[in-house]
Amino acid sequence: MSWRSLIADRDAELFLDSALRHGYNAVLLDSCEHAKLPGEQRYIVDESLCEIC
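The chain above was modelled as a monomer; its predicted structure follows.
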C-alpha cells in the first residue's frame, strides 16, 4: 500500500508545502502513481535502477 493511499490528497499537499517552506529535502517512495502535487519533483526508477524521467 502506498503512503498516498493512506492520507487525503489535501493532507499530502499540506505536508509537501510545509516541508518545502522549511527548506527540507524529502524522498518519498511509492509503488503506484498518483496525481502530482504542486512543487513535487517526480523521478521514476525501474527495477534496473535506471531513471526513466
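Residues 9-21 form the longest helix (13 residues).
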